[in-house]
Amino acid sequence: LAMAAAVAEAVASGSVAGAVEAALAVLPEDTAIGHNARLALAVARKAGDPFGAIPALDGALLDHVYSYGVGAAQTVPVALALAEVSGGELGRAVPAAACLASLADSAPALTGALAGACGGYEAIPEGWTASTRTLAGCCLPDLAGRDLIQLLEDIA
What we know:
Helix content: 55-70%
Distance between the termini: 25 Å
Number of strands: 0
Largest sheet: none
Number of helices: 9
C-alpha cells in the first residue's frame, strides 16, 4: 500500500523516473522484489534501451521455470526497468516486455500501465486509442457501441 501511494504521487507528476525512484524507496533491498528491481534497473540502464535490455534481463533476472511465487518479484522489476529506460514511451516499453517469454502474460500489462499512467492519455498511440474506444459489449451488452472516453467523462 505504501508503494502504491508513493508511486501514485510520482505518476501524477508525469515522471516515470520519479515513479521508479518512489518504488525503489519502498522496496527493501533485502527482499527478492527489492533486489530484483535494483538489478533490473542496472541492467536496463546499462543497455540503454528497452529492446536492448531484454537479453540481459532474461539472463540476469528471470527463472525460466515459471513460478507464481516469484511472479511479482520478477514482473514489477521488469516493468520499472523497461518503463524507465524507454523514457515512458509505450511503443518502446510494451513490445520489449512482451519479448520476455516467462513474463509475457504480466510484464507487458504492468509496463504499459506504468508508462501510460506517467505519460497520460496523450502517450497512447492514436491507432491504439482509435481501435479500443468503441466498446464491444462482450461483458456488458448494454455498452455495445458506446465510446469509452465519453462513458468515463460521463461517470466523472
